[in-house]
Amino acid sequence: xxxxxxxxxxxxxxxxxxxxxxxxxxxxxxxxxxxxxxxxxxxxxxxxxxxxxxxxxxxxxxxxxxxxxxxxxxxxxxxxxxxxxxxxxxxxxxxxxxxxxxxxxxxxxxxxxxxx
Length: 116
Known about the structure:
Structural class: alpha+beta
Radius of gyration: 15 Å
Distance between the termini: 39 Å
Strand content: 5-15%
Helix content: 25-40%
Strand order of the largest sheet: 1-2-3
Largest sheet: 3 strands, antiparallel
Order of helices and strands: HHHHEEEH
Number of helices: 5
Number of strands: 3
């Protein structure tokens, strides 16, 4: 882990951090994910999954902090200071990442998905 402290986050690291922070979303909302969710529904689901405030970490894993009310997710290979550091994902960017990672369509969107 000592070498990891100075390591910059790759895009793959950011996706891993997002998945770790939102790991219960596909379990708790599997049916809604299949049928699609509006931005408002997805934001509410993410707020419930993230909770008021939390975090995680462990050997060989990035350290993560998250706050559901603002849909913010921080992460890094160092101890994350959620007060001073800019979050990796916040608000609409968190919703967009959830759509991309979990392939969640918006039933209000008339455009056909290229990924189905």
